Amino acid sequence: MSLILRLLVSAVAVLIAAYIIPGVSVDSFITALIVAVVLGLLNAIVKPILVILTIPITILTLGLFYLVINVLMVYLAAALVSGFAVSGFIAALLFSILVAIVTWAIDSIVG
Questions:
Q1: For residues 63 and 52, is the Cβ–Cβ distance under 8 A?
Q2: Which of 7, 79, 86, 109 is 20 to 30 A from 73 (CA-CA)?
Q3: Which residue has the higher pLDDT, 90 or 5?
Q4: In whole angstroms, how far apart are CA 84 and each of 12, 34, 60, 61, 66?
Q5: Mind listing the pLDDT tens digit for each residue in 95-109?
Q6: Neighbouring residues of 14: CB distance < 8 A, sequence distance ≥ 6
Q7: What is the pLDDT of residue 1?
Q8: Closest CA to 7 of 26, 34, 47
Q9: Going by C-beta distance under 8 Å and a sequence separation of 6 or more, which residues neighbour residue 64?
C-alpha cells in the first residue's frame, strides 16, 4: 500500500510542477502517474550508473553536476512518455527541484 501511496504523491507532485512551471506540460493525471513510475524506475536503475560514471566531474563541480543528472532523468522521462513534454534545460531543472520539494512536503504531511 505504501508504494501505491508514494506513486500517487509523486503523480500529484508532477501535476503541481507542470502547472507552476512554464515549459512543462502533462496531458492528464494518468500521464502524470506514468511519469511518476518512469521517473521512479529511471532514478532506481539509470541514475546510480550515471552517478558512478560521473564521480570525477561531480567532485570537480562540487556536486553541481548532480543537478545535470537530474535534468537528464527528466529529459529521458519526457522522451519515453507521450503526453509529457519539457521545453528546455531550465524548465527541466526547475521541474526536478519542484517535484522533489513537493514530494518531500506531501510525504511529511501524509506520514
A1: no
A2: 109
A3: 90
A4: 14, 9, 33, 30, 23
A5: 999 999 988 888 788
A6: 26, 32, 35, 36, 39, 99
A7: 60
A8: 34
A9: 58
Closest C-alpha among 33, 103, 34, 42 to residue 71 = 42
Answer whether residue 111 shows pLDDT above 80. Answer: no
Location of C-alpha cell 522522451: 79
For the chain, domain boundaries: 2-110
SS (H, E, C) the chain: CHHHHHHHHHHHHHHHHHHHCCCEEECCHHHHHHHHHHHHHHHHHHHHHHHHHCHHHHHHCCCCHHHHHHHHHHHHHHHHCCCEEECCHHHHHHHHHHHHHHHHHHHHHHC
- Cell 532514478, located at residue: 43
Rounded to 10°, the helix 89-110/65-80 angle is: 90
Residues written for the chain: 111
Q: Which three cell numbers stand for residue 18?
A: 507542470
